[in-house]
Amino acid sequence: MAMANANAGAFGLEDVPDLPEAPTEQPKYNRDYHRLFVKFMSWLHKRTYTKAARFQPSALAGIQPHHVADYLKWRAYGTTDVDFKDLEQNPTCRSSTLEQDKKAISFYMPIKGATWNGTSGNPTKSDPVNEVVKEVKKAETQHRGKKSCATRDLTETEYRKVVHELYGKGSFESTIRTACMLKQQVHLITRTDDISKLKYSDYKPHPDFPFALSCKVHWSKNISEERQCPDQIILGSMDTDFCAMLGLANYMEASFNYGYGAAGREDAFLFTPESDPKLAPKHCNAAYRNILKAVFLSAPFLAVALLIAGVLGSHSIRKFAATLARGMGATADEVDIRGRWKARLSGRVVDAYISPEQPWIDARVAEKLCMGAPIAYKLHPDAKRVTPDWLIEHVVPRTHAFYDGVNDISLHLALPLLWAALDESWEERMEPPVRVRIQDAYERIKADLPVGINPLVKVPLSIWTHNTKLHINEIEPMDTGGGGGTAGGTTGTTGQASTRQVANQSRQVTAMQTQQQVRTNEEILTRIIAQHNQLQQLIAQEGRTRDSSAAALRGWLETWLGAELTKLNGNICRIAVQPPRMATPDQVDGNLFRNGLTVERTRRNGQTSLRYRQAVATTPADSRPAKLAKYRTVGSAWQEWMHGIGGNKPAKNFTAEDIRACKSTYSRRKPLWTLMATLVNAQKAPAWVISKIEEHYKGSVLNITAAIKQDTIMGSLHEDLCIVRAQ
């Protein structure tokens, strides 16, 4: 066992426990984290561990947060004595490096999930460690320290330059194979290792649309269960630099000439002739990345790339695909689904119930990645001699023989491959034997079409959804009177016309059709926008009408409620100031009983005598505490006098004993209480009294009470606060 058994105290780390001689627990191991953790342990124990070293969990229990924090300081600044306020001390590594070290150390901790609580837990989840990472990030924002090495995304211009440079490399692996991998990576928004692990069996005909394929990416880094690997649609693109269908057709038919697919349809990797399940994808990925790196460092590419700051790498391609889809109008959640990032969301419970297979969203993002427009390759109406049997025999014989009728995609790939073989721009992008074979076979049956007319038509597609079902319709080319379709069928051409002239006429017709379609679409869009604006105006008008009605009703209710409250306050005030009435003997008896007394009447010699006794049943006295609260408003003073505050007894019910307990405060507040009670008894509403006092007296309640006491003594109260007695 390559583990240290020496006492850690020998290295000046007395709080780090000795490594046990006889391990009793299975040590943890992670290939990605072990190298970083060995480096941390070597620094901690001041000795060098080899990569074969293993560390028992019980031996790691003594690691404290300050050990991890000091190590991160040493990694970033080269010393543990760091003053973060000193701007002269600049970090020599990025915060992402420290976060990776922190993650590696956290993996090996005995208590991994718990935050450090001062005595136990995960030391990497503590304030000292987080503070170091935070300060390094702050230094990065201030442009101090090491510059970022993160790769940026490609631009569209750079992507096209990569494609053109690849087709000029020469060898099959450097041109056709790498270009196909690049187009598949962009169309599926994958990593380079995902593409390297694709197999021939991962592609199959789409069950609903005969012009499309479906592909299942099994090896994505973010996929943790099988249900997160839905079938994804593959569409053709009007722009050949982005056409995944064309790139796949061009590559697959030629790949069998180089020994690809020898392992059989189910087990053969698509982009490597090797069959080892572990080494083959790794070697393919390394070769793919090396070719891309060579292109990124080539002089023609640097002439374009140096205009934009940032580092480029193989990951830049996936960033380019995600950014392109987002820029073309797809939402971030839609890009998540196409790129299989959905498992990286918040982990909400509802995510377990939402199916990851979203055909409409997947097709919508695929449409955004098809520059120009998504298309279907269709045979020209006049190309009657180009039959499925002819395509299998002369265009994709090797592909058809390989699939042998099981999920055969040969006919799907035959149409784009035939288009490329008969197009001048693809003369340098195809394998010469394949191109010559197709052209020779077509020369014998091309009498149905004029010279120079491609028998394949690129038909644009319209992708939409209704009731959660995906619909893809072909947009038929408009009739401009010249005949032909998008593929370039034209009338009036003669047998002596050159291929270039016919192609130019075809492009002119296509341009006219496109312009007409654009004008039609603009007219439709204008009508839609006008109807939308009219609908918005109706909604706004209805909202204003509804708001005005609600405001009128609210005003009426406030007026009615105010009148009723005024009437109620007036009645209460009149009852309060009514003069006392002579009570009847029964009322006297009732009042006496309520005061705890009973009366006995005796009549002797014609005279009535009364005798009072303590009642058997008495009403209990107010047992609430007699305390005066603290407050800042005149309204609270009235509340305290009438009802009490905070569960205390009303001040008006204080007994002599209660008053003596708080004599000073009670005496100071009494003038305010007396004035308010007097005005309320004179049929003034409490709210009116409070407003008048606050109107004529300013300051705290204590100052207001002192001023009222002074004005009462001097007879200088405001007339609103005086009661006029009837003469």
UniProtKB/TrEMBL annotation:
Q: Which UniProt keywords apply?
A: DNA recombination, Membrane, Transmembrane, Transmembrane helix
Gly residues bias located where?
480-492
Q: Which GO terms describe its biological process?
A: DNA integration; DNA recombination
> This chain belongs to which protein, by name?
Transcription activator GCR1-like domain-containing protein
Domain of life (superkingdom): Eukaryota
Q: Where are the transmembrane segments?
A: 291-312
Indicate the segments forming the Transcription activator GCR1-like domain, all copies.
630-695
Q: Which GO terms describe its molecular function?
A: DNA binding
The record, for InterPro entries, names: DNA_brk_join_enz (IPR011010), Integrase-like_cat_sf (IPR013762), TF_GCR1-like (IPR022210)
Kindly name one Pfam family recorded for this protein: GCR1_C
Q: State the residue spans of region: Disordered.
A: 479-501
